[in-house]
């Protein structure tokens, strides 16, 4: 496939407002690729040249990209900058200039060639790399046709954002094979173990479902972390599980730790490589985990070496930084409470019951809770089989200043990426109305008025995830509760990912439309007083056709948050991790309100 063909697909996908039509178009693209091309096409669809957990920085800021375009097209900087400011898109600006310059003749470069050149940008470093990067990009702009330059410039600028999620690609891969989404479940299961869409696509192209069925955990490749369901009372938990294993729920940040022959890699919940942030955890794993190779999971929490107590999340989170890491590590040392062993010495443990995984974990990590000398500690666990047991452990956890407890199915398997009933969380806030928080996606914002005019933002729209439709549905538009600094931060982040039109993944009532739509990237934690019903919000809303069969009317109003306010930005979560419509529906029922 030549890159010009790929660019026409990019253009068609970008112009599509229907998620189904987008899925079919991506599937059509996949059908045209060879097994050696499809992985590269998948990466470039995501604006990348590697899977997300592999660090590959293009190292080209906006000014450098402009210099490359000026060099390629022999342009005046003033004229390009003027048009760029007017159009607001470096890719469209480059494309327009390229169209106006007729002396250049485009070459039919292959997808593989262009991919390799883009990958070269991420590998060029050291003395003279600045000029080399500009030269590589300038050659691409000079060589390609106008439409292709739009996208080849956007990729290193990290502004490609075609408006679909990883789940859309999984659907498209199924569609490629069968013409529908029937294989989504099997493909997604493999993706959760190996979240490399390029690799998954290539295996499917080469070997079909047989190929991805063989996928097992691999040290150095993060596994998408399992998630818990929530229930509001011990009675509900016992009714669901009968008996289980209870563990404290620490209020820190989750880490998945990979070790092989002494080399340690740490991954966050969002699959980011955060090894450099936590040198004390890395050293602790090297010294205290007795294994040739392993993948473990745990929760890192700050520890006060003077009082011997654990620190609240607000202090623990200070360890997530790019600078002064060693100084902060001494000031706020971490303890990693491990509760999962997913892989050990060449063998996957995903198909082993929880009790077996815990036994193996204890064998390979000392279970002695010496908080002062050890960094890696096995999480406390006890068997519970009554409401009284759960209440006792819950009260004990709260007394220690923890969030609550986790109750896990004794024979439960670790299900990567799943939010199943093998894990149930029970938090202190569940005992009151809706003091628990929701993780929501920022979908867009309205421009500010009055004092907010200076911020450029006056309110922002948030939504939750519908697993049934793979879309984001609205629950609140928030215009209060943020500090001036938070408003400015949100506006800056939103502007950077602004979309030209409402993304196909968003289901929004016209009354909730916003001035600026943004791509699905920013996750925020929202607190609200209550969940109510609203016909203008789409989360949980049911529509029915009128007698004419044309207009739709609301049969069941959607869920809405009463008095919503921002708690914090969730840098550790991806859009796919936000609270689901199903969860909010359960929370609403627990409030004891009658459904409409």
Describe it for me?
- DNA ligase that seals nicks in double-stranded DNA during DNA replication, DNA recombination and DNA repair.
- ATP binds at residues 247, 254, 269, 299, 339, 419, 425.
- One of its GO terms (molecular function) is ATP binding.
- It is a single chain.
- With 596 residues, this protein is of the alpha+beta class.
- It has three domains: 47-157, DNA ligase i, domain 1 (Orthogonal Bundle), CATH 1.10.3260; 227-431, D-amino Acid Aminotransferase, Chain A, domain 1 (2-Layer Sandwich); 438-590, Nucleic acid-binding proteins (OB fold (Dihydrolipoamide Acetyltransferase, E2P), Beta Barrel), CATH 2.40.50.
- It is 38% helix and 22% strand.
- It contains 21 helices and 24 strands.
- Strands 13, 14, 15, 16, 17, 18, 19 and 24 form an eight-stranded mixed beta sheet that branches. Strands 3, 4, 5, 6, 7, 8 and 9 form a seven-stranded mixed beta sheet that branches. A five-stranded mixed beta sheet has the order 1-12-11-2-10, covered by helices on one side.
- Strand 3 and strand 4 form a beta hairpin.
- Helix 14 crosses helix 19 (387-399).
- The longest helix has 15 residues, at 129-143.
- The radius of gyration is 25 Å and the shape is globular.
- It starts with a helix and ends in a 6-residue tail after the last helix.
């Amino acid at each position: 496939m030549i890159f010009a063909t790929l660019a026409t697909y990019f253009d068609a996908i970008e112009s599509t407002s229907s998620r189904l039509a987008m899925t079919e178009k991506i599937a059509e693209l996949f059908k045209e690729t060879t097994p050696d091309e499809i992985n590269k096409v998948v990466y470039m669809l995501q604006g990348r040249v590697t899977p997300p957990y592999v660090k590959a920085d293009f190292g080209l800021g906006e000014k450098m990209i402009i210099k490359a375009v000026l060099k390629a097209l022999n342009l005046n900087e003033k004229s390009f900058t003027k048009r760029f400011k007017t159009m607001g898109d470096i890719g469209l600006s480059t494309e327009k200039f390229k169209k106006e310059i007729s002396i250049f003749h485009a070459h039919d470069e292959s997808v593989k060639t262009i991919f390799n050149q883009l990958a070269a940008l991420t590998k060029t470093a050291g003395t003279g790399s600045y000029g080399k990067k500009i030269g590589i990009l300038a050659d691409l702009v000079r060589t390609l046709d106008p439409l292709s330059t739009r996208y080849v410039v956007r990729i290193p600028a990290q502004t490609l954002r075609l408006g679909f999620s990883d789940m859309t690609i999984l659907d498209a891969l199924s569609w490629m094979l069968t013409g529908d989404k029937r294989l989504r479940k099997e493909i997604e299961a493999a993706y959760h173990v190996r979240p490399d869409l390029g690799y998954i696509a290539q295996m499917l192209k080469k070997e079909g479902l047989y190929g991805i069925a063989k996928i097992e955990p691999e040290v150095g490749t993060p596994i998408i972390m399992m998630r818990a369901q929530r229930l509001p009372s011990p009675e509900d938990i016992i009714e669901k599980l009968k008996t289980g294993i209870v563990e404290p729920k620490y209020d820190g940040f989750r880490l998945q730790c990979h070790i092989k022959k002494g080399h340690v890699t740490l991954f966050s919940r969002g699959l980011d490589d955060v090894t450099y942030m936590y040198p004390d955890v890395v050293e602790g794993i090297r010294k205290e985990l007795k294994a040739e190779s392993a993948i473990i999971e745990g929760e890192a929490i700050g520890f006060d070496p003077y009082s011997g107590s654990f620190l609240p999340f607000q202090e623990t989170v200070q360890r997530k930084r790019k600078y002064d890491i060693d100084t902060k590590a001494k000031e706020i040392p971490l303890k990693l409470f491990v509760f999962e062993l997913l892989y050990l010495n060449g063998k996957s443990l995903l198909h082993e019951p929880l009790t077996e995984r815990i036994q193996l974990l204890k064998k390979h990590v000392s279970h002695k809770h010496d908080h002062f000398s050890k960094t890696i500690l096995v999480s406390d666990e006890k068997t519970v089989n009554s409401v009284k047991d759960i209440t006792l452990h819950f009260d004990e956890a709260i007394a220690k200043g923890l969030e609550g407890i986790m109750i896990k199915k004794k024979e439960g398997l670790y299900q990567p990426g799943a939010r199943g009933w093998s894990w149930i969380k029970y938090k202190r806030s569940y005992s009151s109305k809706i003091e628990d928080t929701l993780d929501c996606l920022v979908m867009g914002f309205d421009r500010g008025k009055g004092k907010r005019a200076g911020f450029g933002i006056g309110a922002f729209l948030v939504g939750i995830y519908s697993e049934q439709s793979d879309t984001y549905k609205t629950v609140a538009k928030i215009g209060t509760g943020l500090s001036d600094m938070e408003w400015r931060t949100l506006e800056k982040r939103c502007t950077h990912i602004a979309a030209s039109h409402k993304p196909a993944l968003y289901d929004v009532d016209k009354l909730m439309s916003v001035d600026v739509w943004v791509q699905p990237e920013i996750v925020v934690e929202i607190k609200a007083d209550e969940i109510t019903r609203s016909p203008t919000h789409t989360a949980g809303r049911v529509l029915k056709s009128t007698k004419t069969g044309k207009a739709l009317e609301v049969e069941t109003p959607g869920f809405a948050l009463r008095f919503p306010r921002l708690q914090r930005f969730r840098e550790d979560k991806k859009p796919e991790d936000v609270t689901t419509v199903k969860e909010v529906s359960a929370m609403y029922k627990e409030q004891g309100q009658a459904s409409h």
